Amino acid sequence: RSAGDADSLHGAGYFEKKAHQSKRKPIDNRFTPGKIYVYFYKNIPTLDLDLLFPNIRTSMTQRDRLMLAVPGIGAAIPVLIKVLPNLVLLLAALLLAFNASSVIDTETLASVDVAESEARNIMPVLVASLTLVIALGGFMFKQYTQYKNKKIRFQKEVTDTLFFKNLANHASVFQMLGDIAEEEECKEMFLAYYHLLTSPIPLTADALDAKIEAWMQDKTGTAINFDIHGPLKNLAAIQAPLQPAHAPTSLLSLDSQGHCQVLPLHTARVVLDTVWDNAFSV
Fold first, then answer.
1. Nearest to 51 by CA among 178, 214, 166
2. pTM for the whole thing?
3. Does residue 98 surpass a pLDDT of 70?
4. N or C: which end of the chain has fewer CB within 10 A?
5. Burial class of residue 260 in the structure, from the number of CB atoms within 10 Å of its CB (0-12 exposed, 13-18 middle, 19+ buried)
6. CB 40, CB 167: distance < 8 Å
7. How many angstroms separate the CA atoms of 191 and 75, rounded?
8. 203: three-class secondary structure by DSSP
């Protein structure tokens, strides 16, 4: 992944312009514009690919907003009904304080169990104000807590994606790709050696190629186009003398008719052991 788009790399001015066009604040120094960042991930869902870019802003979807808003509205109705007398009492006190008592009559106060004397007394007004603040404040705090918890859960999912599925970063990516390529080469050599060793009849390179492809189709249900020339070349390149002062013996050889022949397993182990023992000799 790069700090720019898929076609080119951009400088800092490009991202400042994009932020200005979207009416957002410029992104902090999470990355250096024009610099390539290489990451190696495994099994990233398609919908989470955008999260791998360093210049991505996350936001709630309409579905997430509805999941918070609809239950919040439903929970707000009982709270408002419960605090309605305190709200009317506070409103009546404010109207009396500004000499606007004609706006609300005694019958309206009585319908919500509020007496006019309470509206003129400071203590019931203070108690009503405190109750109103506690009830509404508690409700708002609960809704905010639900929002924060949802945000934390989402951030945890992002962290799991970026941390637990991250296999390598930057220079180590190329080393890992090299190791994976070498491992695949070894698997191809094992397949070629195994089928030559277990075949009851001599096999040419083309016959061995067809046999391995049929074996893979039967064992895994996957049709492949096996490249036989690379594994045969690598097997032939592994050689070592079986005895001191003897000529090197290769794991793979070809007879006069083009049939591939491999060393028996116990002899191949001697060759591999000799190669490994002298791998770091000067």
1. 166
2. 0.55
3. no
4. C
5. buried
6. yes
7. 65
8. strand
pLDDT-above-90 percentage for the chain: 32
- Other Cβ atoms within 10 Å of 186 Cβ, number: 12
Using the structure block, give the residue that is written with the tokens 């609300």.
Answer: 104
> What's the pLDDT band for 95 if we cut at 50, 70, 90?
low
Q: What is the mean pLDDT of residues 263-276?
A: 92
Is the per-residue pLDDT at 72 higher than 90?
A: no
CA distances to 67, 76, 133, 269 from 140, rounded to whole Å, are: 16, 9, 10, 73
User: Would you state the structure tokens that stand for residue 207, as one six-digit string?
Assistant: 């016959």
* Residues in contact with 25: Cβ distance below 8 Å, sequence separation at least 6, in sequence order: 19
Burial of 135 (0-12, 13-18, 19+ CB in 10 A): middle
The residues pairing with 40 across neighbouring beta strands, listed in sequence order, are: 168
249, 263 contact by CB (below 8 A): yes
12: left (phi over 0), alpha (psi -120 to 50) or beta: alpha
